[in-house]
Design goal:
Elements lengths: L1 H22 L1 E3 H8 L3 H13 L3 E4 L2 E4 L22 E5 L4 E4 L2 H11 L3 E7 L6 E3 L4 E4 L11 E4 L2 H11 L2 E3 L1 H10 L9
Length: 192
């Protein structure tokens, strides 16, 4: 039986790793539900994958590991990304590009166009990974933790609304945020 359980665990970790590589990030609760195991089992699997350097654990899940030796700085502005703000783009050919924040991340997504398979950033409040296309953005708030003008991502609209109430700015979808960058003249190469 021990051999059978080990084989299943190895298969499960491979499935987890495949999902991380495909989507850029995974959530523990989603994996547990999909794979039919407890969240604690997923925690242990992620611990093992992280110890092997294959994923990076974050609160509530895991994200793909970016090789700092390959690309230590933001593809757009050259800043060293902070883990709490970084934005990772996965391309169809299997490469990853890193941006320091959602501002530069959306510029990168626009620049890469149809080559983009997925994009992951972090919720500004919870620090949990979020699909960049599904995020709600606050543009031009008074909080500018990285590049200006400010553009921050949130997984939940309610959190974005509360943040906006305190720091100003406007709410935007992924597409609206990209259009805002274009209107600012930033997406055409000016200011990049």
């Amino acid at each position: 039986m021990g051999m059978h359980v080990t084989l299943l665990a190895a298969q499960r970790r491979k499935q987890i790793l495949d999902e991380v590589r495909t989507h850029g990030a995974v959530r523990i609760a989603d994996l547990a539900r999909r794979l039919g195991v407890s969240e604690m089992t997923i925690h242990r699997d992620l611990d093992r994958l992280a110890a092997e350097g294959l994923v990076r654990k974050v609160f509530g899940g895991a994200v793909a590991v970016e090789s700092l030796a390959v690309q230590p700085h933001c593809t757009i502005c050259g800043t060293l990304p902070e883990k709490r703000l970084d934005f990772t783009v996965h391309t169809r050919d299997g490469t990853r590009a890193v941006a320091c924040c959602p501002h530069c991340g959306l510029l990168l997504v626009r620049r890469l166009g149809a080559q983009v398979q997925s994009a992951v950033t972090f919720d500004f409040v919870t620090r949990q990974p979020v699909n960049a296309r599904a995020a709600v953005y606050v543009v031009e708030s008074t909080a500018t933790p990285c590049c200006a003008p400010s553009l921050l991502a949130f997984a939940r609209r309610e959190d974005a609304v509360r943040f906006q109430a305190g720091f100003g700015g406007r709410l935007a979808t992924f597409q609206q945020a990209v259009e805002w960058l274009e209107a600012m003249g930033l997406a055409s190469g000016k200011g990049e």
